[in-house]
Amino acid sequence: MGPLWDDMKVFLAVAREASLSGAGRVLKMDPATVGRRISRFEEAMDAALFVKTPQGYALNAAGDRLLAHAETAEQAMRSGQEALSGPSDTLSGQIRLGAPDGCANYVLPQVCARISKDHPDLDIQIVALPRGVNLSRREADMAVTVSAPTSGQLLVQKICDYKLHLVASRHYLRDAAPIENLEDLKDHKMIGYIPDMIFDRELDYLNELGVERVALASTSVSVQIKLAAQGGALCVAHDFCLPSHRMLRKILNDKISLTRSFHLVRHQGDQRSERINRFADALQKGIRDEVETLEALT
């Protein structure tokens, strides 16, 4: 079982990284050795598991069927190790958390710093991406998302709601044409996401407001807000970002107020892990408290 399980870990790494070199980096192993181990594993399974393409290694139908079972075995091994190590008041090891960059920049640093202080042997990695995090490839152990996924064997828990408003810098408002109603917005430049790179319909704020042109655009929330702070245009911003940018002011509060939600998404099988469950509980409470605290300051 030993060599077979070792080779299954190699299989999982290649499936997630889609290349021998990528798997080698994860496993700290030479790509040629990864290739030999995959060949040995396919021979043991009596089936080819990958198709080699110009882009790398892609799972074939047999590999797809095996993947879910391999991940179940992986989680069972982790749970077994936790059971043997016994209960502990503090968490240890590594947990990788994916999140949209607004949450990652303005909420998670405070939350994760507090969790790290309570659990000094725990390594927390925050993956801030301008797209969804692929949990099936184990880009992260869990992810904070804006939309709740509806497919896959995933556990989805709503964390909290958060508010967004239209904002502009004090300098912009001093020099620009007055903004008293929605009709006035047509005379002002807007900042937002790059329209054809919006990865979640919940982020398409400007379309919801009927805005047709995005004069300044970025895939990053923090870049958008910094553009607004420069005084060049208007921006839809999370209320929890505003305490970090005191030069920004909400406008048309009574006419434009958006509500979105954060969800925590992880593999269903991870529910068997006390360590993951405890981190998830601490993370959700931390995010709820931090969003509430920051929004109260605006």
From TrEMBL:
Q: Which UniProt keywords apply?
A: DNA-binding, Transcription, Transcription regulation
Q: Which residues form the HTH lysR-type domain?
A: 3-60
- Kindly give the Pfam families that the UniProt entry links to this protein: HTH_1, LysR_substrate
Task: Output the InterPro entries linked to this UniProt entry.
Answer: LysR-type_TF_proteobact-type, LysR_HTH_N, LysR_subst-bd, WH-like_DNA-bd_sf, WH_DNA-bd_sf
One of the entry's Gene Ontology molecular-function terms is: sequence-specific DNA binding
Give the protein family.
Belongs to the LysR transcriptional regulatory family.
Organism, by scientific name, is Epibacterium ulvae
PANTHER family tied to this protein? HTH-TYPE TRANSCRIPTIONAL REGULATOR, TRANSCRIPTIONAL REGULATORY PROTEIN
The name this protein carries in UniProt is Transcriptional regulator, LysR family
Q: Which domain of life is it from?
A: Bacteria
List the GO biological process terms. DNA-templated transcription
